[in-house]
User: Fold this.
Amino acid sequence: MSVYRPKTTVEQWRILQAVVDFGGYAHAAEQLNKSQSSLNHAVAKLQQVLGVQLLEVRGRKAYLTDIGEVMLRRSRQLTQTITELEQLADNLHFGWEPEVRLAIEMVCNRAPMLPVFADFNRESRGSRLVIDDTVLTGTLEQIIEQSADVVITHNLPKGVLGEPFGEFRMELVCHPQHELATLPQPIKQADLLNHLQVVIRDTASKPAETSGWLKAEQRWTVSHFDEALRLVKSGLGFCWLPTYMTEQSIARGELARLIIDGSSHRSGLLYLVLPKGEKTGPCAKLLANKLLEMKPQVVSNVVELGQA
Assistant:
C-alpha cells in the first residue's frame, strides 16, 4: 500500500492565515518577522501544489476566493490540532497526565457537575477524561486497586480518607397501580417478599452483597438506574431509587412512594477520594479541586443495589 505524502506544510497554511488575518502580505510580514517576498512565495507555492487559487490581490489587499474560504477554515482546524499536540507533548514532559479516570458511584446526580466538566475541559490541556459508573464494592475496588484517579463514593474502605462531597438520599418506589401501592402505609418488610425487586448490578470483579434489602423471592438485576426506572414505571416491580430521579415522576403520578415500617428513607454522605494519594497527577488534582469547589455541593442519592 502506497503511503500518501503531503504536498503542503503547516508553515504554508500558517502564512496563509496570517496574510488573511492581518489584511495583506506587508502587515503579515511585520507580524511574522519575515520578508514580504518569502510570504508571497509561500502562498504562491501553496496554490501551485494544490492547483487552486486561494487569494486574489485587489489593490494592496489580498482577498480570499470562495475556494480559499473553505480551505482556510479547514486549515485553522489543522494548525489548532498541531498546536494542541505540541502543547500536550510539553505537558507530558512535565508530568501532566494524558488521561484522568473519574469513578463516580452510580447513585450520584451528575447534572450539577456538568459546568465543572466544561470548566475542566478548558483547562485540561488536552488530557482525556474517562468517567466510570461504579456500584457498591465496584467503587471500593477502584479505590483499593487505585485504578481510578478520582473517586466519588458513599462508602470509605478502612484506612482511606475522603473529603465530604455531598449528601445522598433514596426512597422505595413502585407503579401507582402496583399491589404494594394499595396497601396501608407504612408497609411491613414481609409485604415485599412475594413481589419482584429490581436491583442494580455490583460493578466489582468479585461483587459481594453486603448492603441493601435483597430478600425478595423474585429479583431482576439491571446495570443502570435508567433501566430500573423503566421497569418500575411499567409496573413490573419495586426498587430503591435516587430522589433526584423519582421526584418529578412521583409528582406526575407515574410513581408511588412506599414507606416501610422503620425505614421511611435512607440517607448519608458522599466522599471524594484520591486513591493514589501523593502520587495523584496534577490534572487529576485540578479536577478534584474543581469538584470540591462546586457550589452548591452535590446532593445525591443512594439506591438499593445488588448483584445477579
In short: The chain has two domains: 10-93, 97-308. Residues 97 and 195 are 49 Å apart (CA to CA).
